[in-house]
Design goal:
single chain; 395 residues; mainly alpha; Growth Hormone, Chain: A; globular; MFS_Transporter; Major facilitator superfamily protein; transmembrane transporter activity; transmembrane helix
Length: 395
Amino acid sequence: MLLLVLMSHITPRNRRLALNGLFFLAGLCFASWASRIPDLQTKFGLSEAALGGVLLVLPIGSLTALPLAGWSVHRFGSRPVILISAIAYAATLPLIALSPGYWMLFPVVFLFGMLGNMMNISLNTQALSVEKALGKSILASFHGLWSLAGFVGAGIGAFMVFFGLSPAVHYLIVMCLAGAIVFFTYPYLLNERSATGGGGLTWVKPDALLLRVGLIAFLGMLAEGCMFDWSGIYFKKVVEVPAAYTVLGYVFFMGAMATGRFLADPLIERKGRPFVLRFSGLLIAGGLFLSVGAPLPVAASIGFVLVGFGVAAIVPVCYGIAGRSASYPPSVSLALVSTISFFGFLLGPPLIGFIAELAGLRFSFFAVALAGLGIYGLSTWRTALFQVGPKVKSA
């Protein structure tokens, strides 16, 4: 009876509130995992190389899940996939901490990566439906909540460490919290099951629109991945700040990225998606050129803030365009663009290391600035391509 009452009150506004909670949950689970990596390294006695191997299987799992995610959402609808992946994603956290040994970490972390991306594709598919129902751009705000959850999750992790709680206890608490969030939000989701179903797990060729958008997202994720992994090292070795302040580069970047995602939707409404992509590319390039040209604490900090604002909207905007493709259903389009872009996130950090080894870390950041210029160029050339499919109405 309660479920029937809730279902009768499903509105675009309620669906948006429910998705707010689920996007926050996704970010919280990932941040909870990341915040306890040092403790897991100690618990399992991992060397740096062994830890690197464990960390590598997570993005491999994420990448592996993409065709399955696109097909399952297309075949069964986003609602059941959100339910299964959200519960399983949170339940996998304690399994990581309770693994009997190093050998078991690989399949569990691989599964964690898979479930995270299953949740990502299904949530974004549902979010595109809500965006269409509301008639205005809201996708970036959902990604902003994911980023905000990263800060909250890191804070909770620090709290758990301070009071000496093990990763297992920490993860069990997060799992229980996740169950409560899913319980209260799931009834407000609608299922957009495709009328055509799906024939199997197959790769499809992206059309001109999805290839262009995928390349833009690839460059954005390349810059984002580099900033995630190398910002602290850049502040330490190039900016040469005291050891206690090396984290500032990461904090400035992450803070600007989270803030930028909450500011992006109104800008999209006023100026359109091509403009936001061009502006984002210029911010990335300008911020990195400033940081490279004037590697001083204040200038580099301003530069990293600009980069954070620059990368903030790229993935949400690209997803918004891809979800309106006339060639494929939203879930398949999202999986295609996410597959292309994910390689940028994987290749960016090692590319920085390779270039830094040859020409120095400072020059490697100059090379990443070219990604921003690439985004600007791809967003400027033949912008009419971005207008295919149904458009989002102005608010």
